[in-house]
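During the no-cost extension, the postdoctoral fellow (Dr. R.K.) reprocessed legacy sequence entries with the updated structure-token encoder. One reprocessed record is reproduced below for audit purposes.
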Amino acid sequence: MIKKKNDEPEFYELSDFRFYLETDKALSLNTIKAYMTDLEQYARFLKKYQNVYYVTDISSEHIEKYMLSLKRSNLSKTSMARKLTAIKEFHKFLADEKIANNNPAKLVDNVKKDKKLPTVLSQEEVDRMINSIPQDSPLNLRNRALMEIMYGCGLRVSEVVNLEVGDLHLNSKYIELIGKGNKQRVIPIGDMASEALKKYIHEGRNELAKGVFSEYVFLSYQGKPMSRQAVFKYLKQLAKNNGIEKEISPHTIRHSFATHLLENGVDLRYVQEMLGHEDISTTQIYTHMDTSRLKELVNSVHPLANKEDKNEKI
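Re-encoded structure tokens follow.
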């Protein structure tokens, strides 16, 4: 119930809910405090604008009106999503404990967060990074092969660090791996990536392995499989060494791979298969083009774009 007390709403059920968060959910004190603050704000709205004082009277329309008020106040979608999570958890608790007959929050759609496009490197920037890696030591041979296969195949960092020697079919120029969702896929590999991998495996990997058998392709200087953190750290340093100020991560290389394929006319379905996306809508995030690329495309196909100026008066 929500009760008037000194002109402020109070959830009588809130103390039970807090206990549930502390014991059953084992949430941190900061998270619990955030939940409580959000729910108190929610309760004030119900009282002041909806004349609702009992949790059993709350409907999905009341929740939707509250979310609309948050939107009109220009609250960020991230904050709105957090507040709705608190509300949904509370109503689920009320329904599970039979305090309320139903859960009105189940009918309320989640907040759709804005999709932020990840950073993409230009083809020149990728080439600069790869070509700056010398091939004069086992670690540099590894690093060159690492960059070539990440960019040449668009692998996730988890797929790279878990790649095994048995997954490589370099003479046939393809690799097979188990990706996200435990799904197997076959990815063709280009000449440059294939040659870089061959050179690393034949001339550098055994020295890194230090005589100890390992099934993993990419090894650290200690002979252990490279970690995700090590790949991330190396890419950031490589970009910095080449004067690239963009925020770099392993996903940046994957994103650049997909974007460059699409910019060069590769079919979206093929890119989807290469990336291992189950739904093509996930792949469509890579179809963005910068203004210069779009202008170039229009100029190449529009019938009037390249019309010479013959001082024609229109």
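Confidence is low (pLDDT under 50) at residues 3-9, 289-294, 307-314. The chain has two domains: 2-107, 123-293. The remaining legacy entries will be reprocessed before the final report is submitted.
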